[in-house]
Design brief:
The chain is an alpha/beta fold. The chain is 37% helix and 15% strand.
């Protein structure tokens, strides 16, 4: 059964500074070598980064690889922290 995956593509130091609960960290540079072993193409994958640029790039790449339900979190974790959950630290 497909599930919702929060995929954080920032660097480990960024993830340590602020992250969403239950998110999976795979830094952008490791996506090509790890994604096919660790993610299911049938899952709904929400990709996030700091402001949305890296997540959009990874989302486009994932879709080209057959992850049709991948989408980017607009505005990234910064926007999330400012508008949805102020308990998530800004950095």
């Amino acid at each position: 059964m497909p599930k919702l995956i929060l995929l954080d593509v920032r660097e480990p130091w960024e993830y340590q500074a602020a992250h969403l609960p239950d998110s999976i960290l795979i830094p952008m540079g490791e996506i090509p070598s790890r994604v096919h072993q660790e993610l299911d193409p049938d899952d709904h994958i929400v990709v996030l980064c700091h402001h949305g640029a890296r997540s959009l790039s990874v989302t486009m790449w994932l879709r080209q690889q057959g992850f049709e339900r991948a989408q980017s979190l607009a505005g990234g974790i910064d926007h999330w922290s400012r508008t949805i959950d102020q308990t998530v630290p800004l950095y």
